[in-house]
């Protein structure tokens, strides 16, 4: 597979790391106007770091555009004449719809919107995918790549904004919950490093329990909450402060924002 990543900032470089660490390519072009984030990959075999987007497009079959919504339009326009019907064009840009991509490069191209998260660098991304009519023929190929980098789900494009909030922004939401747990642990007497370990490993255990057992969170909560015990006391205090409500409102606020980005 000849892959190019155009835009190697936070997400593009995370994707590059996942792809390089697991040798998922025959050649990999990393193209950015500022290549600082991928300078460590310069000496990797079969990896080319460049600032020439057109060179990257011409040398590759699979193009992953990892640019901010405000930049992707201009970059697509500048490489459009070099994109052929054989290319598979993937975009991770939040709120940038397939119809907009089609209007720039043509609806006869294979286009797939991919929504991974930064855990892709350690092969733990939850990645959602949606394609245009032509791209549906290539979506299994895309899924094959991203299955090597975590877990994938093919969804209708209408759900991609929601998936962006839950899976991509979700990394930040979960980080904040872990940080708050760490702050609580320090207040209860743990050193910062220990507090961090307790918080992350417990979070990992909770997610693993749900994934491996297939059970509902409330079933697992019932197994922890001893009657009149400390867990239900803590949970109820959190709910009186609006824990679930705050999370849901945050998710909805994030979703409203991404819909504004979509319209702009
Ligand atoms: N950061 C995240 O966790 C996620 C980001 N996304 C989406 O991915 C896209 C990229 O996000 P980030 O990586 O966070 O942004 P970023 O700002 O870190 O990276 C964008 C990169 O594009 C480069 N760039 C700008 N103009 C260019 C040009 N003309 N030619 C070549 N490169 C150019 C910039 O130098 C920068 O390195 C955004 O659309 C975002 O919505 C989606 C899911 C998760
Ligand atoms: O915050 C953002 O807009 C992007 C999309 C999801 C993650 N980062």
Automatic annotation (TrEMBL):
Cellular location(s): Cytoplasm
One Pfam family linked to the record: P5CR_dimer
Record's protein name: Pyrroline-5-carboxylate reductase
Chain's role: Catalyzes the reduction of 1-pyrroline-5-carboxylate (PCA) to L-proline.
Domain Pyrroline-5-carboxylate reductase dimerisation: from-to ranges: 157-260
Keywords linked to the UniProt accession: Amino-acid biosynthesis, Cytoplasm, NADP, Oxidoreductase, Proline biosynthesis
Chief place of localization: cytoplasm
Protein family per UniProt: Belongs to the pyrroline-5-carboxylate reductase family.
Pathway noted in the entry: Amino-acid biosynthesis; L-proline biosynthesis; L-proline from L-glutamate 5-semialdehyde: step 1/1
Pyrroline-5-carboxylate reductase catalytic N-terminal domain span: 2-95
Gene Ontology MF, one: pyrroline-5-carboxylate reductase activity
Enzyme Commission code(s) on record: 1.5.1.2
Lineage, opening ranks: Bacteria, Pseudomonadati, Bacteroidota, Flavobacteriia, Flavobacteriales
Range of residues in the leader sequence: none
Catalytic activity: L-proline + NAD(+) = (S)-1-pyrroline-5-carboxylate + NADH + 2 H(+); L-proline + NADP(+) = (S)-1-pyrroline-5-carboxylate + NADPH + 2 H(+)
